[in-house]
Inverse folding.
């Protein structure tokens, strides 16, 4: 059977030490072959060290606009009074931001990644915020500027030439965290599968409510035997 490029991408690299260890274990002992780093996370420096120790792991940028603090000095209008981003995972119901300010913020995040010396594999975003149609031009502009690709989302269908893979699956999440979801991946072309393995550390519960599932993901990702048509 013809090989299919399967990108098993772990989001949130750099979020906390437990996320970092879960991702690395799922790479070294499992099927994770890619990760995207959230540059305003609590454990970015550690993630950079780990990425350099494991060059077989592709690493990209997990662009943030719905969690944490911005990196660009121009981003104050994008924040709440406490200095964190004002946007949430319900961004489609919220007033769109100034696209130029988002461009400058995301450019700062990409530049922070590039300063690590790691090669940039691709872009995606926390809570899929680059799926906000109001920001279509921003993610396209950045991908073209940095000569890279981004996670395939339906709002960006017109720029399939910039998709990192031909297909994208977010099914391995929540109730979909199961061996059956991985077994359901079909051959043909290329596909990215989003995953979130982690070890639950003291910090993670203050960041997200998605906890036990991350442990379950790690267990499955390190035990799964991929088909011989995966490449």
């Amino acid at each position: 059977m013809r090989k299919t490029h399967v990108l098993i991408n772990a989001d949130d690299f750099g979020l906390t030490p437990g996320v970092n260890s879960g991702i690395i274990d799922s790479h070294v002992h499992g099927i994770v072959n890619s990760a995207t780093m959230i540059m305003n996370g609590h454990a970015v420096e550690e993630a950079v060290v780990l990425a350099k120790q494991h060059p077989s792991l592709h690493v990209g940028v997990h662009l943030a606009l719905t969690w944490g603090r911005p990196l660009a000095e121009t981003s104050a209008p994008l924040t709440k009074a406490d200095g964190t981003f004002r946007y949430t995972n319900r961004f489609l119901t919220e007033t769109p931001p100034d696209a130029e300010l988002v461009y400058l913020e995301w450019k700062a995040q990409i530049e922070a990644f590039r300063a690590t010396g790691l090669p940039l594999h691709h872009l995606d975003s926390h809570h899929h915020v680059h799926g906000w149609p109001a920001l279509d031009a921003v993610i396209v502009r950045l991908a073209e500027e940095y000569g890279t690709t981004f996670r395939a989302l339906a709002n960006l269908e017109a720029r399939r030439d910039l998709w990192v893979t031909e297909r994208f699956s977010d099914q391995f999440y929540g109730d979909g965290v199961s061996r059956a979801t991985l077994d359901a991946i079909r051959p043909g072309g290329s596909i990215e599968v989003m995953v979130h393995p982690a070890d639950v550390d003291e910090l993670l519960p203050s960041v997200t409510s998605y906890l036990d599932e991350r442990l379950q993901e790690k267990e499955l990702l390190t035990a799964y035997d991929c088909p011989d048509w995966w490449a």
The beta strands are 5-13, 34-37, 58-63, 123-125, 167-169, 190-195.
